[in-house]
Design a protein that fits this description.
Collagenase (Catalytic Domain); 214 residues; 5 helices; alpha/beta
Length: 214
């Protein structure tokens, strides 16, 4: 009897700690994306995972819709976008390779995924970081993901820019004025060249992130 009481007491004491270490999906729902007048040649599904203490669905929704219009110039359409609200201990709410790998592994969300987090511990500390096939060799759980820190300016441009990195599987930047892939994102930087669009479509299709419209 005394042994059982001790076990019950241990469970009561440790229960808050176990709960505090849990990673959970609180809810998920579809986000409507307006489609352009021109029929796309390729489509993809996008997962948008966020922590509500750092981001609001409205902010994400607005930026994704505008970002989708930028990618549409390449004949690429977001066929389906899903908002996923997350719960996790504070250490998972900032981008940091070891803990972010744990988070992504535990959640096992479809790719590509954009994670909206509170901040970053990476050095240098970018507002957003894209991880494709070429730069995920030692961190495979993060492959085909984008991590965006709270406070990132020109969020719609940032999302389109980082998604283009993932879809092209390239970290290259452009020096061309007005190009989306300039290193510094800005409202006037929205253009993608024909060569960039071709690479984006072909690479992402090969990596099964895009599917041709039949």
């Amino acid at each position: 009897m005394i042994f059982l009481l001790r076990i019950l007491l241990l469970v009561v004491v440790l229960a808050p700690a176990w709960a505090g270490n849990s990673i959970a999906i609180l809810d998920r729902y579809a986000l409507a994306i307006e489609h352009g007048a021109v029929a796309p040649s390729h489509r993809f599904a996008l997962v948008l995972a966020y922590f509500e203490d750092s981001w609001t669905p409205e902010t994400i929704r607005s930026a994704v819709r505008k970002g989708a219009q930028i990618l549409a110039q390449c004949g690429v359409e977001i066929a389906k976008a899903e908002l996923v609200r997350l719960e996790a201990p504070a250490r998972y709410r900032v981008f940091d390779t070891p803990t972010s790998r744990e988070l992504a592994r535990e959640l096992a969300l479809s790719k590509p995924t954009i994670y909206f987090v509170a901040g970053t511990r990476q050095q240098p500390a970018f507002d957003a970081e894209a991880i494709g096939r070429g730069n995920s060799g030692t961190r495979p759980e993060l492959r085909d993901t984008v991590w965006v820190a709270r406070g990132a300016r020109d969020l719609d441009i940032v999302l389109a820019h980082e998604l283009a990195h993932v879809l092209m599987d390239s970290g290259e930047h452009s020096e061309e004025l007005g190009n989306l892939m300039r290193e510094d994102t800005a409202p006037q930087n929205t253009h993608l060249t024909q060569a960039q669009c071709t690479r984006l479509r072909e690479t992402a299709t090969s990596n099964r992130l895009l599917r041709p419209v039949r």
